[in-house]
Specification:
Order of helices and strands: HEEHEEEHEHHEH
Distance between the termini: 101 Å
Structural class: alpha+beta
Number of strands: 7
Strand content: 5-15%
Shape: flat
Number of helices: 6
Strand order of the largest sheet: 3-7-6-4-5
């Protein structure tokens, strides 16, 4: 047996009543109820670092640059070191890549950075990924359908064979810090000392 709800007319006094509500409102006038933190986040433009209030203030939708720098430096310090064997290099957390020893030597000679402070990482290759025809055409196939065209599948297999033989498309910062050969360090030091 279902209980029948009473009918309440739109203009009846019991349909709605005026109440006074208390809550947090951001600087732009949005109401957040009891959520003070969210109201302050939406209403503020800058904040202090919670880890170290002595750090400079930063934008609310960002993070403390000094804390980020410290975390990144700790990450670099914890990286295993590997002897450089000619692979592409990149400056840690940067976008300056070196693809040969001459380019690296020229940069180091012209740079004001102490060689001991140079943070170089060995790059890892980014290869093209093979293409799964079932996945590629998933929006075109019926549910639980599969490709039955042998020529199309053979074309994908040929393409994937070429992908497997491809050279790297690009390079990314890897997991190893680079240890430069002493001969290169000596060469750079001598070039910097020359008038």
């Amino acid at each position: 047996m279902s209980v029948k709800k009473p009918i309440i007319m739109y203009d009846a006094p019991e349909a709605a009543s005026l109440k006074t509500v208390t809550g947090w409102v951001s600087a732009d006038g949005r109401f957040f109820g009891a959520d003070e933190n969210l109201a302050r986040y939406c209403g503020a433009t800058h904040r202090r670092c919670e880890a170290n209030p002595e750090h400079p203030i930063y934008e609310v939708n960002s993070s403390c640059n000094e804390c980020r720098h410290d975390r990144r430096q700790a990450k670099f310090a914890a990286m295993p070191v590997k002897d450089w064997a000619g692979e592409p290099l990149v400056i840690f957390d940067g976008d300056r890549y070196f693809f040969d020893e001459d380019d690296l030597r020229d940069y180091l000679v012209d740079s004001d950075i102490e060689l001991a402070d140079m943070q170089l990482c060995i790059c890892e290759p980014n290869y093209p990924r093979e293409i799964d025809p079932e996945e590629h055409f998933c929006d075109d196939l019926p549910e639980d359908g599969e490709i039955n065209d042998g020529q199309l599948l053979a074309a994908f297999e040929l393409l994937n064979e070429m992908v497997r033989q491809s050279r790297p498309l690009s390079w990314s910062e890897g997991e190893f810090a680079a240890r430069l050969p002493q001969s290169l360090i000596d060469e750079v030091t001598a070039a910097r000392a020359a008038p």
